[in-house]
Design a protein that fits this description.
two-stranded antiparallel ribbon, 1% strand
Length: 495
């Protein structure tokens, strides 16, 4: 049936060209005709889209794992390399710091060279970073492990802005938020594994040679996984489907000329007041999550000495709950399109979760910490895809990579500030004061979210050209705001 439909579409609308061997069953066919049938726009979904988003999730997982693999065993890393806690914190913060100057050339690459080249660059850097760290498992080679972490952090710059771009390029209007959530899901799964695995692989032993052995094993595992994923990306990953999946994506392809200035696009975004409010509020929320993740080992060890493994499990609980929140929020957005309302509710509940976590951490009951950490993670991490998708709606038809890049840039800036400040506050006044510090900024972000004007531009673009329908008599009708007539019924695929 898929081949027959593809043949009908190609024969009756020859401007579309051949679909290639990967074309799958079409699920949507729409017509936009300004002058004649040759200008019709057909949309199509490919089954390969699920392979693409899964592969992206895998290499995002590999990279995110490395971000937190040092922080969750910070006391062991301090002992092995003979460095202080603030120095170890920079192994996580380098991910945030490197993002800020490199995001602009990276988003330019994504906008102008496409998803495949961006994916190849990300995986090459990620793979190189893991192998450099294999060589750093000696007490006098901290600078080598920092070099490897820096290369991995550069790979992250190519990864964080891709979920919304990939979802828009490959997925239909009713599944784009779910697809974005799956992309974020991979990153969160990597953080979850980064919380769980290092405390298991690297026990807190006193013998330096034994400790070096365990650290080297940890590095070899991450290098092997990164290498395998790199090979799969080279073989399988594609840029975008030949036929766009939605009318908004078709319109975006036509309204983003190659000679359009990248800086002009950024300036338009910076003049978009709802987007600026979202970028700042997003940065406050995600920056708090970065600070909590980086300093979690220190917070748990302060109240529960010797519980390195449980600290990792608590981090795992935060992220697993957040992955559930991400998927639920993505599905909810696809069903309801209530972007501002959902974002605001989740933001308020993130603040509530942070307050509960802050005031119960020192009670002395580990099960309470697990429960409150899960509540915090469900909403705080579940907020991530909401921010991405809301930004795309507010900024359409600007590049999804550019809007996501600016959101992430805000998050990295606030992440560095919050991690440093909370670390100093914890050292001086304890974990409660440090967590209250974060609650204040979550409150500010909640208020800012309430002032965002909900201008859903992408939804309007999808609604402007509705799928043409065939009446029982065989006549073609189409509802359009462009004032154009539909392509002939021969462009409609058979059922």
């Amino acid at each position: 049936m898929g081949d027959k439909n593809a043949q009908n579409t190609t024969e009756n609308c020859p401007h579309l060209g051949a679909n290639g061997p990967d074309a799958m069953v079409p699920t949507e066919c729409s017509g936009i005709q300004k002058d004649n049938c040759s200008s019709a726009v057909t949309t199509r979904l490919y089954k390969r889209r699920w392979v693409i988003v899964l592969l992206f999730s895998l290499y995002s997982l590999s990279n995110a794992y490395q971000w937190i693999q040092y922080g969750i065993i910070s006391n062991i890393i301090m002992k092995f390399y003979s460095v202080d806690g603030f120095t170890v914190d920079w192994l996580s913060m380098v991910y945030m710091l490197s993002y800020i100057p490199f995001i602009f050339p990276t988003t330019w690459l994504l906008d102008n060279k496409g998803l495949r080249l961006t994916a190849l660059a990300a995986n090459a850097l990620n793979c190189a970073g893991t192998w450099i760290k294999v060589a750093s498992a000696r007490p006098n080679l901290f600078w080598v492990t920092m070099l490897g972490q820096f290369l991995s952090s550069l790979a992250q710059v190519f990864i964080l802005g891709m979920p919304s771009s990939l979802a828009s390029a490959w997925f239909g209007a009713d599944e784009v938020s779910t697809a974005c959530s799956i992309g974020v899901f991979g990153n969160q799964m990597g953080i979850a594994i980064g919380f769980l695995v290092p405390p298991i692989l690297v026990p807190n032993v006193d013998d330096v040679n034994e400790l070096a052995y365990h650290i080297r094993i940890m590095f070899y595992i991450s290098a092997g996984v990164a290498t395998l994923i790199f090979v799969l990306v080279v073989i399988v990953f594609q840029d975008r489907p030949e036929i766009p999946p939605t009318q908004s994506q078709a319109q975006a392809r036509n309204t983003r000329p190659d000679d359009d200035s990248y800086m002009a696009s950024i300036l338009r975004l910076l003049r978009n007041k709802p987007f600026i409010l979202l970028a700042i509020s997003y940065g406050l929320n995600v920056g708090c999550f970065y600070a909590i993740s980086t300093l979690l080992n220190r917070m748990i060890i302060e109240h529960y000495p010797g519980e390195e493994v449980n600290a990792g499990r608590i981090g795992l609980t935060i992220v697993i709950a957040g992955m559930a929140g991400s998927l639920i929020c993505g599905i909810w957005l696809d069903k309801t399109k209530t972007y501002k309302q959902t974002t605001l509710v989740v933001y308020v509940l993130s603040l509530v979760g942070m307050l509960v976590y802050a005031f119960t951490l020192s009670l002395g009951h580990m099960w309470v910490v697990f429960l409150t950490a899960g509540l915090l993670g469900f909403f705080m991490t579940g907020y991530l895809p909401l921010g991405f998708e809301f930004a795309v709606e507010l900024t359409f038809p600007e590049s999804e990579g550019t809007s996501s890049g600016l959101l992430n840039c805000s998050a990295q800036i606030f992440g560095i500030i919050f991690t440093i400040c909370e670390g100093k506050i914890i050292d001086a006044w304890g974990t409660l004061a440090g967590n209250i510090f974060l609650c204040i900024f979550l409150l500010i972000g909640t208020v800012m979210t309430g002032f965002i004007k909900s201008d859903l531009r992408r939804q309007k673009a999808n609604q402007q050209v509705e799928v043409q329908t065939v009446s029982p008599a065989g006549s073609v009708t189409s509802v359009q705001d462009y004032g154009a007539t539909a392509c002939s019924s021969s462009c409609q695929p058979e059922s």
